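User: Predict the complex with magnesium ion.
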Amino acid sequence: MRRLWIGLTYAVFGLLIVIPLARIAVGAWAEGWGGLSAAILRPHALHALGMTGLIVLIVTVLNTLFGVMLAIYLARASWLGDRLRRLVNSLVDLPFAVSPVIGGLMIVLLLGPQSVLGAFFGSLGIEIVYALPAMVLATLFITFPLMVREVLPVLQELGTQQEEAASTLGAYSWYTFWQVTWPSIRWGVIYGVVLTVARSMGEFGAVLIVSGNIMNKTQTATTLVYQDVENFNLLAANAVALVLAAVSIALLLLMEWAKTRRGH
Amino acid sequence: MHIEVTGLNKHYGDFHAVRDISFGIAKGRLIGLLGPSGGGKTSILRMLAGLETPSSGEIVFHGRKVVGLPPQERGIGFVFQNYALFKHMTVYDNIAFGLKVMKQSKALIRERVLSLVALTGLAGFEHRYPHQLSGGQRQRVAFARALAPEPQLLLLDEPFAAIDAKIRQELRSWLKETIARLGITSIFVTHDQDEAIEVADEIMIINKGRLEQKGTPWDIYKHPQTPFVASFVGESTIVEQVARLKGFESADARIGTRALIRPEYIEIGKPGEFRLASATEPAVVKQLHFRGSAWMVEAQVGELTLITYRSLEKETLHPGEEVRVLVHRAYLFNEGESWIMENGLKEDPMPVHI
Ligand SMILES: Nc1ncnc2c1ncn2[C@@H]1O[C@H](COP(=O)(O)OP(=O)(O)O)[C@@H](O)[C@H]1O
Ligand SMILES: [Mg+2]
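Assistant: Here is the predicted structure with magnesium ion placed in the model:
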């Protein structure tokens, strides 16, 4: 019986992950190294990969800063009042509950050229929707819960006593954060960073809606794969997908390592 | 540091945890806050430290009002109930923390930390992490860490609660000596009366958010001012109808009077052992329990069961044996008052009012 379950687990794992991955690799390799590199070195493919990289970088930095900050407020700021904290705490999970496409749509409705805000920024010459800012916003919306949900439980489990001890020893909050709190939440933050990178790299729906998928301008790696598939250019689609998959696997390994260190 | 607290109150939501507490502590004294769990001891300590804001009341350290000052500016040391050591720092870095905050020179920090390490008997453990230490060692690290910045007031929350009974004994006397040597005003919380009696110069009994009594251990034992204090400190039996005991017939004068009788107020023995046989009362030995240094005897006197001790040196009693008991005194109380009454047949015919 136990054997059966283990076998079944492996079968599902193979069916869902290994076989598709192998198919992508084989597809990308259909014309050997030449075809693969040609597909990736297409100027708009390089631009799309660069775009993805840029979004990942900005989103990860912002999400780490704001995520850690919000986690600290939720865990420590008793002056905020229980009710407000509970409300914010449940709002944090909103992006988990809302489909990314709808998240993207909300951004278009709020900040699109037809909206009040969008028109205002437009008059200043700042493009938001169908440009980088909205893509960053959309990705930030999708990834926001990841950091908070990683760090908040660590902070709650840590408790306030070590920080209180530091305060009775004369240390103020900034010093206490770096000397006392940070070493304890460090691995949680790193884990949150890895999750954020992985998630923002792979985001498709929200980005597709707010970006308009404009080649050489707002196209990202995932929306390029989508376009290549639409154009029956399977080799190119597989090649770009392989790059994304390779980074994801590297992240996965990093994540495993971070997880084992998190306990320390 | 001289401490003066007046009208201290603390509410947590609707819950009134500390009720109108006032006291003063002279410089260099070691004070024990004693009382049952949930009484508000930790809350009082945290308000002194600045970790909690009083709902009302005044706290004055050495002539300076400190309510509103953050813990960083109060010049206190705090030893937490579960020590709250910095778990990713070595013993050395834990103790050095407060000195690093003060931006002292490396050499000075080193000198001070090593002297504290020596004082607390932690030499050789400087490079260990808290999880590599025993409970007693952790407690001493917490103590050394709190002392390092030379606080004016040391606050300790149940410092021995998490330590084995045997080492606890050693640590208690060590702590008492060390604090006496340093001459630092200290307040420690405990729910263990033996600990408070043994360690403290003065005890404050805290119950349900109120300060029931403040005094030396001997004072509190000898002259309890409330029934709670009388029953909480020392052992005792509550007797409803004390007038039935010989020598206490007049105790009924005030209605609702009950008595609290400590084992050491009662003498038990064979009929021939008493000088004042007229004041004694017949009793039957109900049960005997061996208590290491004495026999604990449950004696049946009419309908009452009294508990007392009998020296191992005296002839051993047996269950069912007919004996005599002499009740020397009783602590009497009713709704509003409490007083001590000596056995009327023994000597003084007048009860002593306090
Ligand atoms: N932060 C808090 N919020 C709400 N109630 C509290 C808080 N801290 C303590 N209490 C309550 O106040 C009472 C006194 O607690 P405490 O001061 O810890 O007592 P003690 O240290 O004597 O056991 C308890 O009933 C406790 O539940
Ligand atoms: Mg307590």
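The domain at 3-228 of chain B is CATH 3.40.50.300 (Rossmann fold).
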